[in-house]
Amino acid sequence: MSDERTPETPETEATEAAEENEPIKTRKNGLYPAVSDELADNMKSGWADTELHGLAPLPQAAHTADRRAALSARFPGERLVVPAGHLKTRANDTEYAFRAASEYAYLTGDQTQDGVLVLEPKADGNGHDATVYLLPRSDRENGEFWLDGQGELWVGRRHSLAEAEQVLGIPAQDVRGLAAALKEATGPVRAVRGYDAGIEAALTDKVTAERDEELRVYLSEARLVKDAFEIAELQKACDITARGFEDVVKVLDKAEATSERYIEGTFFLRARVEGNDIGYGSICAAGPHATTLHWVRNDGAVRAGELLLLDAGVETNDLYTADVTRTLPINGTFSPLQRKIYDAVYAAQEAGIAAVKPGADFRDFHDAAQRVLAEHLVAWGLLGDLTVEKVLELGLQRRWTLHGTGHMLGMDVHDCAAARTETYVNGTLEPGMCLTVEPGLYFQADDLTVPEEYRGIGVRIEDDILVTEDGNRNLSDKLPRSSGEVEAWIAGLKG
Ligand code: GLY
Ligand code: MN
Ligand code: MN
Question: Would the CB of 280 count as within 6 Å of ligand 1?
Answer without folding.
Answer: yes
